[in-house]
User: What shape does this take?
Amino acid sequence: AQPDGAICTKSFAAAIDAAHAAGGGRVVVPDGTWTTGPIHFRSNCELHLAEGATVTVDAARVETVSCDFD
Assistant: This one.
């Protein structure tokens, strides 16, 4: 994936899936602005942003979901 423009949803998913398949781990987002759709987290996986990294969400790719919490 390349920062600053392209939608990186598949790259985020692949990195999270690889960490999960390895039993868990840390996905590190490098410096740059990364645009994605929804990010689906998996058990035992962490998302960390390196210094200078920004993750933005393409609003056109996200559904609004209403939730109530007790």
